[in-house]
């Protein structure tokens, strides 16, 4: 296939999937303040679509829409972060979504690499899925730390209990992070507490965004394991109740 044909195909990917960008933007907009314009979210998402079209390998066996989904979503969250549309409390929730999106981008790439050649047993595949879910829970737990003025509500005992538990989790995350390796701690701090992107962190370390995505996923996995070990005494395990 010639370079020109590849270029035409990649332009077609962008043209044919603009509806996907709008659908993702509309889904995200429902969680955000009403003063945010849908067209702004679409513009941020288009950046991710173009990036996905440039990086997509059709020989990998994955559908482009699946490959592009989390990149579009992550690009919208990065746009919200970059242009400061949200207050800190609102952005804490967006940061959790962004972390999950970047983690799932890595998982999507990893799964595409072994598509049709997965030699794991059924039990291993089930355990792999459980690990992904537990790591996503860790992403959301870690993101709670960024919510300023996080105080228990007095609107009902169950809600108070839930928020007190979350505050306890925030404290445990802080303690566990002190015991992490320097590189893992730098990634978690930079991404979740300093509002930096994986691309920016990768530039600091002299590595690509895709390699930083892998390091982020590994750091989250190790953080989850450390949290589970720390929480064993309280019988609370990440990803289960």
Q: What does the average pLDDT come to?
A: 76
Number of strands: 0
Q: Multimeric state of these chains?
A: single chain
The number of distinct helices, counting runs of at least 4 residues, comes to 10
Q: What is the end-to-end distance?
A: 53 Å
Largest sheet: none
Number of domains: 2
Indicate the percent of residues in helices.
over 70%
> In one word, what is the shape?
globular
How would you describe this structure in keywords?
single chain, mainly alpha, 0% strand, disordered N terminus
Structure characterization notes:
By secondary structure, the protein is mainly α. It folds into two domains: 84 residues, RNA polymerase sigma factor, region 2, helix turn helix motif (Rna Polymerase Sigma Factor, Chain: A, Orthogonal Bundle); 129 residues, Butyryl-CoA Dehydrogenase, subunit A, domain 3 (Up-down Bundle). It is 73% helix and 0% strand. It has ten helices and no strands. The longest helix has 26 residues. It is globular, with a radius of gyration of 19 Å. The termini are far apart.
């Amino acid at each position: 296939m010639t370079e020109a044909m590849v270029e035409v195909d990649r332009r077609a990917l962008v043209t044919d999937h603009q509806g996907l960008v709008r659908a993702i933007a509309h889904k995200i907009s429902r969680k955000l303040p009403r003063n945010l314009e849908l067209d702004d979210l679409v513009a941020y998402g288009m950046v991710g679509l173009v990036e996905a079209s440039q990086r997509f390998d059709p020989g990998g066996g994955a559908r482009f829409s699946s490959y592009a989904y989390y990149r579009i979503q992550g690009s919208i969250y990065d746009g919200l972060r970059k242009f400061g549309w949200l207050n800190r409390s609102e952005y804490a929730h967006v940061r959790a979504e962004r972390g999950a999106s970047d983690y799932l981008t890595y998982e999507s790439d990893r799964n595409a690499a072994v598509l049709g050649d997965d030699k794991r047993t059924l039990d291993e595949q089930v355990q792999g899925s459980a690990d992904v879910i537990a790591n996503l829970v860790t992403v959301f737990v870690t993101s709670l730390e960024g919510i300023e003025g996080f105080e228990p509500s007095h609107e009902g005992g169950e809600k108070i209990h839930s928020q007190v538990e979350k505050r306890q989790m925030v404290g445990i995350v802080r303690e566990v992070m002190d015991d992490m390796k320097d590189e893992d701690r730098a990634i978690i701090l930079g991404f979740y507490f300093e509002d930096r992107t994986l691309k920016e962190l990768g530039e600091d370390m002299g590595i690509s965004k895709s390699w930083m995505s892998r390091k982020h996923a590994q750091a989250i996995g190790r953080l989850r394991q450390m949290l589970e070990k720390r929480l064993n005494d309280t019988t609370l395990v990440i990803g289960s109740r």
